Every structure is written in structure tokens, then in C-alpha cells.
Protein: Carbohydrate kinase
Organism: Corynebacterium lipophilum
Amino acid sequence: MITVYGEALVDLVPQDRSPLAPLVPALGGGPFNVARALGRLGADVSFQSRLSRDNFGEALAQSLLDAHVDLTNCGRGDEPTTLAVTALAENGSATYTFYVDGTADRFAQPVPVQEGYAVFGTLSLALEPASLRYAEAASESAKHGAIVCLDPNIRPAFASEKHRLFLRGLLDSVTVLKLSDEEVEFLGDTSHVPVVVTTLGADGLRVRAPFGTVTVPSPKVTVADTIGAGDTVMAALVHQFDARGLDRDGLLALGEEEWCDILTFATRAAAITVSRTGADTPFAHELD
């Protein structure tokens, strides 16, 4: 079983790259994208957060249910849904302005898991009080034997020294850490984390694990935008770990050939996402 923790929000995405382009709502949030992507890939996955009862929250919940994501431990509240206004650069890369005051996901009360995979990340780790509860859930899940995976997905608006230290405090519980190449310097030394996967944009993915280090290139694709690309990678990695039935020892025993297969699957999945507008992650049949 895979449990994904963190926010679900609505991205307001411009229809085109002109400065005053109309904004179109799109369902998003790193953990939401990861959970829905895992569901689309056929994984047994649950989502823990707090969703609003407003129209956006209802749409987020229904989208997860449509992907067969279990919402049993996902709270609901009358607070509004977090909004992220997206700006697109000429190369399709996205930046975000967040509206987070008093929103539902800030009041999540996550429950740790006893086994399987526990995936944490993104905005939910930058906003109290929920961030403190997610940190506790990560620590307790690791103590119980779950494999904790972290994708900090650091946003410039929240890249403070306090946030850096908070994230570093999580690392003792983490088995698999996913970083973008821009985040490596911000977070600092991660040599004590057993597995670190780094996204290299068009250059692919690199993993540093007990066997050593290997890099796998990305497929060539016409990029619509990069929204959800990193979330797709995180989902694809955990899906592969889970599909192979790996416990922590098995994960740490993976060799170069097996890692190449896993990373190749993840780059193929991400290539499909970036070829489409928004975080429209692939379904299992698209990767057969």
C-alpha cells in the first residue's frame, strides 16, 4: 500500500503565454498529482490531506476517486481550497504565486502508517500547523517500518532558512529523496540518505544509491509545459518499487541494471506528462 500525504490545490493556468491570458482552473498540488498518478498507474494508493467542501475541493476529491485513490483518511473542512496562480515561461517552465491563508490543507491531521510506502512533499511541508503534523507522521511511519519517500519540491516563495532546516530535520526518516537539480544546493548535504534521485530536466534522471550512481536520459518530446513533471517522476518511482514488491532491504539492494529500468520507466511517464497541458499524468496502458 502507498500513502501520499500533502496538499491538493487548484492551479490557475494561463491559456497561453501572453501577459494577460485568461486563467483556467486546473487540479493540482504536488501530493495530489502524485496520488492521482499512482492511481492511474494502477497502484493501491491512499491520500491523506484536508480537502475543502467548496466546489474546487469537491472536484479534487472526485478526481482522486475517479483514479481509484482511497480517501478514507482524508479530512474535509469548510475552509477554502488553496490557489496557485501559474506563470509560464517561453520554454514551458512554470512559476507559481500561492494563496494559502486559512486554506483547508493547512489544518490536515495525518495518521502515520505501519507498512508500505509513505510519500511526503511540496507546499504542505512549508505551512504550519500541518507541516509539523506531516513531519511527525513521517517520523512515526519510518519507526513502524514504512519506507518514507520525500519530494520537497521547494518553491522560491517558501525557500527560507527555517524551511531548509525543517526539511533537513526530516531526512533521518527518509529512505528515498527526490530533488531537482536546482534544489540540491539549497538542501545541502544528503549523503546520509540511502537513495537520492535527481531530476535533470531534458537530461533525464540520476540516482545515487548503495550500488553507486547512474544517469538515464529523457526521451525527446515536444514540451507543452512542465507542470506535474516532477510529480510524475515521484509517482513512477514509487509505483515501480511497489510493483516489484520491494521492502527496504530489497530497495537498497537494487543494482545498476534494475535502476536503469526504473528510471527509464519514470522518464517515459514524465515525457507523456510534459507533452500535454497541465499535470495530465499517464495511465498504465500508455506505458505498456
Q: What stands out?
A: The mean pLDDT is 94.
